[in-house]
Amino acid sequence: MAEQRAVAIIGGGVVGVSCALMLAREGHTVTVFEEGRVGHGCSWGNGAQYNAGSALPMAHPGVMWRALRWFADADGPVRLAPRELPRTMPWLVRFLRTGRPQTWEAAYTALHALNQPCAALYRDMLGDTDWKRLFRPNGALHVWRNGSPSPLEEQVDGLRTRHGVAFEKLSAEQVYELEPALSHDYKRGIYFPGSGHVTSPPGLVEGLMNRAIALGASIRAARVETIEPGTECVTLQTSAGPHRYDKVVVAAGIASRDLARSLGISLSLASERGYHITMPAGSGAISRPVTDAASAFVATPLQEGLRIVGIAEFDAPDAPRNVKQNKKLQAYARTMLPDISLSQMTDWMGVRPSTPDSLPIIGAHPKHASILFATGHGHMGISGAPMTAAIISDLVAGRAPRISSVPYRLR
Prior knowledge:
6-stranded mixed sheet, about 35% helix, 9-stranded mixed sheet, alpha/beta, 12 helices
């Protein structure tokens, strides 16, 4: 058992509550600071899938030309708000550098190490009953409208094979046998049996938090305004007054950027806003997450209905929601599932904290070892949260992390 410490977690999303549970299991006194409701920030509206090797860094060889096409297409899945360009430009330069083949392969290797064990770790964290209630290990499907793989796809297949990722290439007939409701414009697919989805993203976060509470963790509804490192402890100045802790874990999504800046460091995090629409009547249309690879959107069946997630909109976190983005998602839904009903549709927008290389930031402040970061998971919070929490618990205990934390260091 590690030496018991008082630990504050800033952020009540899937990463923060996973850290809370792992630390509470080791006997630490854990407090989660969350201004809103636990599990109702970015973790509430995600695509609900977990990826065991199917996910790739957003940057890849040739990404610049694909990004330019997307930026030029008003109906495309990527939008960069002109007012955000000055703040985003350094991030974009680093993003393009990640597209170099060696850098891209190294980023994929680190993503795979982080994400691959997630299902087993969640099962251990939640127990069999809750895991079976929340998780659907039905695999994931990627589909294409063109008939032949590109050279990049062949590179990706080789990369996945070298890392032992299970996948099966499907013909059009096999795609429709797996998911009969899909548009017959799709010519081929890839099935990933090791991936899957959760039935309710907020249910997952609440389940993890309830487990942590049963072990003595607590929630404090307050906004953390500043972090003040000291020789004996770390003081959090919050909307509910000051609080002192032995260790602090910053898992505050895009707000981590401002908290880090107040501590004298600059995290390379972009405000990547994502949108979703959910159709209550469509939950039975498909039985697993389906990704349209060309347009980069995902359909996932949830308890709440069929969710369509997509769009990478680089804009200020508090900028008004862009109603055009939901119309794009409706059009995507119709192209994938022609018979889907869009009645009683709900929509949502949230802010993903995205890094240029798609690798989260996990590790201690370079000058203040009592302040740790667990942020920047972008599109892959569900997949990366359990191993992130494991690394954080190792660092709090003074142990060597169970996987190398070097790829995720502050940068």
